[in-house]
Structures are given as C-alpha cells and as structure tokens.
C-alpha cells in the first residue's frame, strides 16, 4: 500500500482544522509552512507534526500540498512553488470560489492541480476539526487523482461531490447565501427581539430552536414540505402587520424574500 504524505502551506483556521482532522483519522500529515513561522510552529505543535522554515523542505517530504492561505495569497504561493521541484506532486487549495486553473501552466511542471473545499463554517482553529466529519466536500481538478482524493475523504466519513471548474462561482454563491447571508437574516430577527425588550443572548436562545428545527425539517422533508408561516397560509393581514413594523430598507428585503418563498408555496398546492 502506498502511503500518501500531506503538507500544508498556511497555518490559519482552515490549516489547523483540516490538518488536525487528517492527523486524528490516521492520514499521514508531515507538517506546516507559513511566512509567519510562529504560526507554522503552533499548528505543528497542535497536530504533533513538523514546522518548516522553507517551502523546499516541505515539498520534498510531501506528496500532496494543501494551500490553506487566504484566497488572495494563493497565486503568490503558486508562483513560489513553480520555482521548486514539483513533478508528480498534487497541489490543492481550499478556496470555495477559485478553481484549480489558478495553478497556471501546471502541466509544464508535471504536477496535478485541485481545488478541495469543505462546505463548513470553520470558526475556531482549535475545535472546528471535531465536527469536520459533517462537512460536505467538493473537489475539482485533474482527472488523474480526483477519484483518489474523493475516496480519502469518503473513507473519513465525509460526503463528496466532484464538480466542474465552470461551476465554482455559482457553487460558492450557494454556500455564501446559505451560510453567511442567513446570518444577516438571523441578525435582523435578533434585533427585532431586542426592540421587544430581549437581551441579545436571550434573543438568540429564543430563536435557536426555531432555526434548528426548521433546518432539520428541510433535511428530513425537503423545502416544499417544510414551508410554514403567514405566506404559506395566505395570511395577508399578518403580513401587512409585519410590513408596518419595518423600516423602508427592511420592507424591500421582506417583500423580496416572500416573493422567493411564493415560488416554493406554489409547488405545495
């Protein structure tokens, strides 16, 4: 059996979490390189691996390189890697938006490009790895090793889908709308409760069962069957009362969201 050795460039939340997840599940993690060596050292200590002071040594010891820097730094890292011996190496980044095409002319160097993105909110570099098995993984890149990479994640218990590079922007938009922008909607709900005399903590406590139960219903029953509320009931008087409470800006958002839900409601009839 061939042992695949993984190395990480970048020691932020994604690098910490994914590296620790690999190490905890028997994947051979070599260690970390970061321009800030103290970050690489901290990540190495957290995962029980090595920190590297230069890219050349990390590349020499690794078969697969994960670039877990911010998106804006990936191109610069690739420019550095092109100056090294990378033949037969798998070069991966974890951007949701960017495709593997950011590794321009990689075929000239005999290496293989991939974008591997966990659809998962990584908020805590020390603890997020504990729930990483729940992350849905998307992979895009060269056909030669794409199934092997998918198989590694599936063996860890993750669901995986291989996508096309042309889909990356739309895919990332779906992730942002369903995660980051939902946070904006919940923030509105919290602020409305604060106007009713709730503290922020109490507002979140009150809304949490409503939010989580709705998500669980969507997972178990689908979008259409999970729809409830005044629009689904055709309760116009309630909706008018809602609008009367809102600022002009929030009225636009309320109408837009209900127009979207109307498309779901029509499927329920």
Describe the main β-sheet briefly.
8 strands, mixed
Report the total helices.
12
Strand content: 5-15%
Uncertain spans, ≥5 residues at pLDDT below 50?
A: none
Question: Using DSSP, what is the number of strands?
Answer: 8
Compute the average pLDDT. Answer: 95
Q: Name the overall outline.
A: elongated
H/E series: EHEHEHEHEEEHEHHHHHHH
* Strands in their spatial order, largest beta sheet: 3-2-1-4-5-6-7-8
Question: What does this protein structure show overall?
Answer:
This protein is α/β, with parallel strands linked by helices and 269 residues long. Helix content is 53%, strand content 14%. An eight-stranded mixed sheet has the order 3-2-1-4-5-6-7-8. Helix 4 links the parallel strand 4 and strand 5. Helix 7 crosses helix 8. It is elongated, with a radius of gyration of 23 Å. The model has no long low-confidence stretch (mean pLDDT 95).
Short description:
By secondary structure, the chain is of the alpha/beta class. It is built from twelve helices and eight strands. Strands 3-2-1-4-5-6-7-8 form an eight-stranded mixed β-sheet.
């Amino acid at each position: 059996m061939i042992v695949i050795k993984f190395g990480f460039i970048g020691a932020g939340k994604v690098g910490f979490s994914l590296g620790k997840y690999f190490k905890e599940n028997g994947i051979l993690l070599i260690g970390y390189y970061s321009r800030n060596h103290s970050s690489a050292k901290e990540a190495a200590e957290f995962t029980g691996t090595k920190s590297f002071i230069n890219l050349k040594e990390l590349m020499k010891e690794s078969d697969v390189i994960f670039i877990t820097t911010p998106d804006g730094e990936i191109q610069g890292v690739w420019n550095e890697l092109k100056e090294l011996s990378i033949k037969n190496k798998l070069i991966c980044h974890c951007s949701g938006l960017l495709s593997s095409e950011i590794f321009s002319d990689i075929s000239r160097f005999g290496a293989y490009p991939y974008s591997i993105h966990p659809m998962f909110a990584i908020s805590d570099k020390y603890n997020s790895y504990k729930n990483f098995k729940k992350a849905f993984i998307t992979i895009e890149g060269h056909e030669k090793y794409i199934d092997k990479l998918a198989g590694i994640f599936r063996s860890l218990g993750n669901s995986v889908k291989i996508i096309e590079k042309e889909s990356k922007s739309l895919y990332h938009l779906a992730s942002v709308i369903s995660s980051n922008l939902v946070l904006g909607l919940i923030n509105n709900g919290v602020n409305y409760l604060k106007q009713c005399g709730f503290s922020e903590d109490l507002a979140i406590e009150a809304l949490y069962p409503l939010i989580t139960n709705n998500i669980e219903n969507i997972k178990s029953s689908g979008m259409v069957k999970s729809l409830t509320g005044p629009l689904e009931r055709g309760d116009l008087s309630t909706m008018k009362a809602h609008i009367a409470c809102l600022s002009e800006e929030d009225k636009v958002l309320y109408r837009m969201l209900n127009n979207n839900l109307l498309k779901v409601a029509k499927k329920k009839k």
